[in-house]
Amino acid sequence: MITAERKPFEEIYECAKRHKRVLLLGCGTCVTVCMAGGEKEVGILASQIRLAARERGDEITIDEHTITRQCDAEFFDEAITRKAAEVDAIISMGCGVGVQFCSERFPDKIVYPAVNTKFYGATVEQGVWSERCAGCGECIVAAFGGVCPVARCSKSLLNGPCGGSSEGMCEVDPEHTQCAWQLIYDRMEKLGRLDELEEVQPLKDWSHHRDGGPRTIVREDMKL
Amino acid sequence: MMETKVEEHPCSAAADDVRIIAFCCHYCAFTAADLAGTMRQQYPPNIRIVRLPCTGRLEVNMILQAFVDGADGVLVAGCEPGGCHFIKGNLRARKRVDYTRKLLSEAGIDPDRLEMYYIAASEGPLFAQTSREFTEKIQQLKRQRAGGDGTSQSMNGDGT
């Protein structure tokens, strides 16, 4: 899933206080799972803004709504369209995709982001999310025992490890970040495929990644 | 979402007339409140108790909503550490209370208007004492917000 963290309150409040009536729009998919912008977080942020507005003497009316996905046109139904029409601005608690798609759906409204979108990650335990994929466009994890060196090695080394690996942890963040190459080695050893690591990996074609510019997937068979 | 709206008190204009919501665990603090009554222990009538099956049921926005709806203070009372009927509900509530205090602070609300206490079912007098002390603190904070220094006026009309 796409992970995100809520922006600092002041940054959000600065946007909200420019308007009389604001819609806080949550997203029921990724940001709900990573507890950054789902229905509950919409409620919390709405309460915070109401309290701050009362405390500071600002007049802001906050509407709350959460849709299943902000990155999918089919979930922008009549209810949200009606609510959007009644407000001066929208604060989206969806990821960067949701914020932009929301702007596209409501071109006459200002849409502010309420979260900082982080990475494609997994929930490793309740309250902890960790990066697993960099969306490089050409998956190579098969050669590395299912561990992605692009996303999980701080240097994205395809022929690692480097000298910064110490006791299984990465020197960049020894407290939280495991050395991807230690993980790769351990996994390949367990699978009895250590010999495959002796192969030198060729240069990766980064044109499938962001280096090739913004990407679009077209499935002609699926188009209506 | 549990309704926490505080009804307008007939004497709400008085500075001392604070409105406090107490989220109490059914297995400990709520029973302690009941016991306090049975023991004829006096505690301020400003406190409105919301009974929870466990303080682990408490959600961040239940607390914030209480403040939005006009509460001057919120008190969370759960079992003592190690004594939770659901093992860890009170410890989880403690984390949520700490997080909520941070959120209140961001919104410009004094985080001391929210406190968590551990009160066992047998501690009726402790519930009454905690209620009195918390009410006094909230009254003082309300006076400070109103511009007073919090010390020059009598709290309860009897000099306490």
Written description of the protein model:
The complex is a heterodimer of chains A (224) and B (160). Chain A is an alpha/beta fold. Chain A folds into two domains: 2-118, Response regulator (Rossmann fold, 3-Layer(aba) Sandwich), CATH 3.40.50.2300; 134-212, no CATH class. Chain A contains seven helices and nine strands. Chain A has helices at 9-16, 30-33, 39-56, 78-86, 96-105, 149-152, 180-191; strands spanning 2-6, 21-27, 61-67, 89-92, 110-113, 115-125, 128-133, 165-166, 169-170. A four-stranded parallel sheet of chain B has the order 2-1-3-4, with helices on both faces. Chain B has helices at residues 29-38, 60-68, 89-106, 124-146, and strands spanning 20-25, 47-52, 73-78, 114-118. With 160 residues, chain B is α/β, with parallel strands linked by helices. In chain B, 42% of the residues are buried. Chain B has a single domain, classed as Rossmann fold (3-Layer(aba) Sandwich), CATH 3.40.50. At the A-B interface, helix 3 of A face helix 2 and helix 3 of B.
Oligomeric state of shown chains: heterodimer
Outline of chain B, from the CA principal axes? globular
How does CATH name the architecture of the largest domain in chain A? 3-Layer(aba) Sandwich
Low-pLDDT segments of chain B: 9-13, 150-160
Fraction of helical residues of chain A: 25-40%
H and E string of chain B: EHEHEHEH
Q: Structural class given helices, strands, pairing of chain B?
A: alpha/beta
Q: Please report the distance between the alpha carbons of the first and last residues of chain B.
A: 38 Å
Reading side by side through the largest sheet of chain A, how are the strands ordered?
Answer: 3-2-4-5
What is the domain total for the residues of chain A?
2
Mean pLDDT of chain B: 87
